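Escalated from tier 1: nicotinamide-adenine-dinucleotide holo job.
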Amino acid sequence: MATFDSVNPARPSEVIGTYPTQGAADVDRAVEAAAAAQRRWARVPIPARAGVITRAGEILLAHKAELAELVSRECGKILLEAGGDVQEAVDMANFVAGQGRGAWGETVPSELGSKLCWTTRAPIGVIGMITPWNFPVAIPSWKCFPALLAGNGIVLKPSEHAPTCAAAFVAACYEAGVPEGLIQLVHGYAEPAAAIAVHPGVGAVSFTGSVPTGRKVAAAAMETGPRLVSLELGGKNAMVVRPDADLDLVVDGAIFGAFGTSGQRCTSTSRLIVHPDVAGELVERIAKRAGELRLGDPIDPSTDVGPVINRASADRIAGMVADAIAEGATVACGGNVRHAVFGCDGGSFFEPTVLTGVDPHHRVAREEVFGPVLAVMEIADLDEALDVVNSVEYGLSSCIYSRDINTALYAVDRIDAGIVYVNAPTIGAEIPLPFGGTKHTGNGFREAGARGIEQFSQLKTVYIDYSGRLQRAQIDTPGPGLGVSPKGQAE
Ligand code: NAD
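Tier 2 regenerated the structure:
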């Protein structure tokens, strides 16, 4: 069988793991095995399923340091952020396990007597999951834990850039007591993912990745569906800075938001929409700090910014910067790909870049860069600034910096995004709250939070009539002023 290598983006000659390039026949086998295991798992009481998830969280926590090192080596995240990736999975395990002992539906009073009305959640069956590389432990956990709690089997196709992290996550789940066969990993590029999307044995597809791939997956899944498809896609996240903002806070937030994870988060800050009164000072301070960030081996604790995922990605980012310059933007700092970073032969590093003089119509102001590039636009009027925030096709995360509560809350109301921050950068989501975006960022589902379970379960509405006679809803309903007999019959 053909194989592919997963490599360290900082030093591509260092192979992290070799995996089979799987295809549709492998997906067939994986779906069959997951379905067989799922039939047994669905009969396990929900609190017992939650117990397995709790244990998975404990195992991930116990191995946090070595897993963080793996995330750093396979995906190029600096060690500190790699630890955050693993911690997110631990937090998700704890949160989801808690849901296993919480409400599982709602009850409502019946309009008739002697009748119970409630909802419950049923498993879907086998869930197909297709994941990106940039949160290689966290994103599989966001999908797998709620899917397991809801009683499903899983076929997971992780990114070809992060198969080892996915394998380590799945191994922790099995060590925790997930029954044999319930989570199936398939490796490779687009082919197995495309096969999952159209497989008749896959009841729901949960996809996280770029907009173009998400569109393909959803179209294929629905053409052979109907089937539940959830999409978590890209972002073009904006930071709005008003003249009364605390600029120290803005500088810290912009540096972390724009250049953390080398700008390769779906929530990375990629647009800075700043009032002209403070733009000059702010850009100067951000550019100075950005220029001081140390590029290097992500596993070295003194490194601030690691590599981008591969050379093709670096070339794409460079192309977007070149287009921005051609459209009239100016480079305030950075702007170049660097291959000769100490100790990292062959890795592709992109210098933290600040572009000024960007117009909202420029490509760099509209398209996801997925790299460490901050596009600065100067806009005085708050409404105009918020119109620009909302003018892109994405709607994941945005933020406003202002000391004025009225300004801040006005912006919260007007920003069209799934996540809005005040006086904090566009990254920093927490597990108990819903995560996801509006417009082309997604199709309405949210991960994490109390409703994160929704894409992995189906609602069942249950009526139990214990009156001993036929009661007809909307027909036998007692009207206003009518009494109800002790037997529940209208008098
Ligand atoms: P990608 O779209 O290139 O790949 C995602 C997954 O899809 C991978 O497993 C890949 O192998 C698979 N794939 C590729 N081509 C396919 C095809 N034709 N059919 C089916 N599957 C296919 O994304 P990426 O580069 O891995 O990740 C970066 C993107 O993910 C960015 O756009 C980022 O914003 C987005 N992202 C979104 C969220 C979110 O929650 N909204 C989180 C993380 C990343």
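The chain has 14 helices and 21 strands.
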